[in-house]
Records
---
Amino acid sequence: MNGALRQDSRTDDLIFDCYALIEFLSTAFTLEAGDVILTGTPSGVGFAQQPPVRLVPGDRVRVEIEGLGAIENEVIVEPEAAARF
């Protein structure tokens, strides 16, 4: 967050490997190109730190997958129109 490394992990650290996750999920529904499989979070998550660290508007979060690429987003205030739902 904001240039500081908060979490660093590998798929080798997962309880179930990627192949098993895909096999299990594909028995329940069809996986399509662009689907994202969320597996949880490694150690270093902000709310578990002392004191807890939360994202605030203006923070920048970068997620990188070695050999694939990276995505970076800025945290913004939720638009009021979205808050009504």
---
Amino acid sequence: MKIKSLLVLGGMVITLFGCGNPDDNSINIFSVEDDKQLGAQVNQEILSNPQEYPVLSESQYSAAYAYLNNIRNKILNAGEVYYKDEFVWEVRIIHDDNTLNAFCTPGGYIYVYTGLIKFLDSEHELAGVLGHEIAHADRRHTTDQLTKAYGLQLLLDVLLGGNQGTLTEIASGLTTLAFSRANETEADRYSVVYLCPTDYQADGAANFFENLVNAGGSSGTPVFLSTHPDPGNRVQNIQDVGVELGCGGTNIFDQEYQDFKNSLP
């Protein structure tokens, strides 16, 4: 358990250096409850801006959401996601075929672009990407990076219900938030850790990197997977984790994945 300190601001107590993952050596200035509150605020900001984030209706595309939620559930129920029961882990689909991206807010609100879904070839690849994004929230990388990007005071203002402009900026910034090399490497590793107990091929994210490398990269390459370290190196690193952990699994959901893609607009 990490040492706690308290900051009293405007009559509200904010917990700093809160308890975190027992095998996580980083120090996050926000508590898990702060992650959840900030994530909920950012999620509401995203949903209130359909021009920038054209989220597909869950009722209209119920089959697509059921398919995506099933992948999420397999990952969460495998027993390796530390904040499985604390974070919401809601998944939303953004209708934008020109964007190869996915991102996750603090507290577990996951957004996946149709462009990324249609770029991928099979379910285990998407599972690997979702595992990567879940890891950023579960390892609490996002609030770490947001603090570095915006500063403690601005984030505290947002948590206290003020500074709407910063909240809007944070929502937009999550789509291109650049994590550190250590964060990206850890998220890559945990994408394998999360998938290893499932029936998925655990190194699914590596296949996506291979596709990027084979395509020679492009201006549409997603920030969350194209920044340092180099995609080519990450393929080998992810595969090495699968070997290290003795993961099995197979890629047996190709037809279902094609049906999923065909169900999207």
---
Amino acid sequence: MEPSLLQQLAVADRQWIPRAETLPNGAIRYHYRRRADQPPLSVAELRALIANPPSFGAERLAIAQLLTVLAAAGVRLELTEPRKLGAAGEWDPQERTVRIQPRVVEKGSAEFATVLNHEAIHVAQSCRNRGVRSSPRLLGLPTVLPDHLAGVLNEPVYRQASAHEQQLEREAFANQARSGLGAQLVRQHC
């Protein structure tokens, strides 16, 4: 799955590269997508990105490394709908399986790396509690959510979660953007 997955992510990454369109009157219109946690870009920033587009190679490398670490811990990745309705991904310790929605692949390497890192934190939470098939337990990581995620635990997918499950999610959300952390934690605890 890994080479195919990384190839699909590379294709999806193209959507994050801005482009310029010359209008009939000679004016230039810029088209770009931005993530929820990013401020709008200036024309100068857009021009710079067009001239030097991001490769997302670091994100794909982090994904490949994390997949290797997860496999070594006995964890499988499935690109399928999570059983938890509305979730982008989920960790199932009983089946030693991380499930990630296929639509996450379509969002590109940065989004996929974040979701996979989030789920790897849950894997490490399980390993800290007697092993990979155990229920997750807090790791003691910082739990301050970034501004763009402040309301995430109020979303329908988490409303029925117990206080403990919400704490586990808070810990994973607060640290999911820390590239390499999931691999480090799985190595350390599994």
---
Amino acid sequence: MQTKLIIHPDEMSKQWVDVAKKNNIDVIGIHSVGNVNAHINLKNDLDLFQTKQYKSAVDYANLSGIKVEYEIHAVSYLLPRELFLTHPEYFRADENGVRMQNLNFCASNAEALEIIANNAVTLAEKLYGSTNNYFFWTDDIKNSYCKCEKCKNFSPSDQNLILMNAIIKKMREKDKNAKIAFLAYYDTVNLPKKVTPEKGVFLEYAPYERDLYAPASAVGEKEVELIKKLIEFFGKENSCVLEYWYDNSYFSGYKKPPKKLVVNNSIIKEDVQFYLNLGFENVSSFACFLGQDYRELYGEPDFSALKK
């Protein structure tokens, strides 16, 4: 089992690496803030990734035996929104067939897919110190997938997988070992019906809509069966669950100053075993709003439940 904690870019520091090392965390994930401004946030973060201080922290992580990966709602960055002025057909259509400049893309447009895939290759090169596991998620808003005449026959999960397939095929032209996550989250949590994954696509399951104050096993038989089918469909290799046990941005209402994080170690340990029993190879959790400002207010957060 590999464990990962996911933080915001401005929280990355040598102090954070020390906390991760102390708790035997294998990977630190870097997550640009999502929502409708995800593409703007990512653009700003790309400048941060080139700073001496940030690179030094990533280098320190690698020297400490901790890998660094990037988990990003990237589509609105990979398909620049200004292209809407000349190529509205690249963009999603709403229920009335009207093309929309904001959020996601048209999964039936080959040129749009090509642009996104090419830009994904370029983006990967800008992610300082990253492994060859990539997490270029679709946009972080419900009901934002294309409903044009062609796309309406494909579910959000199918459209998501169409995109991940296009990206990984392009990326593997340069790196045969590149891998990309299919994020099962919000509208894409259901099984794709008409599209199958290319080699290198792996499952990342993020149960954001479950009761985050209850054990994961309380989701019920229907959800457990869905998880099993997702693992069977994508395969166990590299499969990971993305949880919210330590997501203090969520528990703080996405507003600072951060609240004090209260964790239930017994439930987290139970959840980890629950996911491993289902077949996941790796576990991860958001751990945002736990940076230097949090430590100054409350001290070091408790990640002991993930110690192997």
